[in-house]
């Protein structure tokens, strides 16, 4: 059954990507976000791997992911799952929380009924609410309950600090581009297996999907600038538009055409996925 996805942007200097989706047969390939992801499962259950560990999330569970945190995803229950997500660029999340630096989420899945309820109220208000007073109240309630979930960088343990450093490497690679990844072996003439092992152990993703996702990030930037999907596909190394569409949907759960209709002309968003 085909996924039912609603996708929109909250305007601002750092637009927040919003998604409400019913997934049935969706399987997300390994990928990461440039910003923070926050969501709540509302139906069914999903499973995914993040930082090399297996996680599952069912109705009412809060899902949180940090920038550069590699993960995948698929249905855990036969009927798939429904989820509401928000993808925050770092500055947007900092503004929401009223902090200088957001820090990092400690656990990808948490059972926090009050936070889940506040998030869903806020998410609904950002989609349908025309009363600015109610929207502001929902935003404040959500921010107050989300803030304790983030661990300031200065208080992170050694293991978490190391993970954050690797995630930032992935975020930084998005600015370098996919071509640089293919040259990783050149300075010391490393074997392909050695490069694969170093990517997999250090970044949590093998070179081929790493390069694919870097190309997808480049595609998103071209689509935001208003380039046609077919042109963006060829410019970023995809065989054709259909090849790009398959890879894009596998990583983000929406098609490049859907993304372009909403995000064209906006600043480069941080998600989804």
From TrEMBL:
Listed GO MF terms: DNA-binding transcription factor activity; sequence-specific DNA binding
Keywords: Activator, DNA-binding, Transcription, Transcription regulation
Origin superkingdom: Bacteria
HTH araC/xylS-type domain sequence ranges: 181-262
Name the record gives this protein: AraC family transcriptional regulator
């Amino acid at each position: 059954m085909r996924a039912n996805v609603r996708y929109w942007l909250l305007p601002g200097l750092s637009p927040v990507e919003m998604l409400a989706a019913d997934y049935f047969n969706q399987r997300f390939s390994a990928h990461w976000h440039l910003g923070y992801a926050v969501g709540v499962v509302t139906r069914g259950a999903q499973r995914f791997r993040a930082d090399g560990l297996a996680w599952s999330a069912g109705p009412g569970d809060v899902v949180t992911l940090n920038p550069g945190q590699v993960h995948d995803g698929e249905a855990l229950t036969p009927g798939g799952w429904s989820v509401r997500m928000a993808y925050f660029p770092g500055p947007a999340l900092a503004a929401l929380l009223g902090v200088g630096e957001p820090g990092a989420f400690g656990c990808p899945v948490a059972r926090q009924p009050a936070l889940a309820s506040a998030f869903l109220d806020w998410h609904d208000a950002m989609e349908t609410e025309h009363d600015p007073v109610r929207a502001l109240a929902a935003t404040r309630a959500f921010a107050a309950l989300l803030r304790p979930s983030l661990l300031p960088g200065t208080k992170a343990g050694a293991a978490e600090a190391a993970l954050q450093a690797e995630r930032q490497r992935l975020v930084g690679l998005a600015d370098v581009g996919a071509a640089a990844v293919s040259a990783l072996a050149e300075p010391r003439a490393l074997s392909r297996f050695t490069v694969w092992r170093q990517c997999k152990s250090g970044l949590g993703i093998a070179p081929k999907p790493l390069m694919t996702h870097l190309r997808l990030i480049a595609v998103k930037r071209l689509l935001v600038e208003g380039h046609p999907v077919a042109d963006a596909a060829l410019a970023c190394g995809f065989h054709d538009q259909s090849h790009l569409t398959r890879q894009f949907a596998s990583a983000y759960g929406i098609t490049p055409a859907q993304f372009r209709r909403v995000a064209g002309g906006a600043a480069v968003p941080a998600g989804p996925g």
